[in-house]
Amino acid sequence: MPAARDVVSDLTQIANPRKAIDLQRFFKTGPGDYAEGDVFLGIVVPKTRVIAKKYQDLSLPEIKKLTESIYHEVRFCGLLILVSQLEKAKTRATQKRLFDFYIGQLKAGYVNNWDLIDVTGVRMGKYLLDEKNSLSILKKLAKSNDLWEKRMAVIFTFAFQRAGDPYPTLEMADILLKDDHDLIHKAVGWALREVGKMDGPLLRNYLRENVKQMPRTTLRYAIEKFSQAERKSWIKA
Fold it and tell me: Is pLDDT of 237 > 90?
């Protein structure tokens, strides 16, 4: 049976120390930064995906060893395996077990950078589409004091958008509109932009109601697909 150590061995064999330095700088791992202390092996995402696919049948206890690694790419690989298993799960009970594990890892601080959240959260959020308490789960995350839980609340709503429902995104935006972190400003703006692709009038109505209290970063992301003239109009609002 494959084990976490096999995954780690495969990853370390393709590690690139020079690339690791660049990634640690890019993902803000220095003192006082949002990902302070995170350690990289220096592996690009496509190569991590290949290894995750190779070990897609890894047991949950072994996945846990990966998602709790000190190495960013090892955690990422474990999360990719987890998401793949949830998407292939045949029973709701199995899906719940995997989703609950994912949330547990988030709350324990192992899903702790924007790439981990953005790549896996959109897919993992599909679980919530059939969950009666989905809005309650999203609101609890959005009202957390933890940066990554708040970002996850936004990213999960992309699953609802893809199912044709933009309103959970707007509800999370309402909660997080006055948040003071740039990573939340960007996430909310990105999500609003996607709402606009679905329903332009809905986004414009939301902007009319909130533009004066909206962080400029959020607004710029939200109106990115508008014409240049309309973007200028909103920026001046």
Answer: no
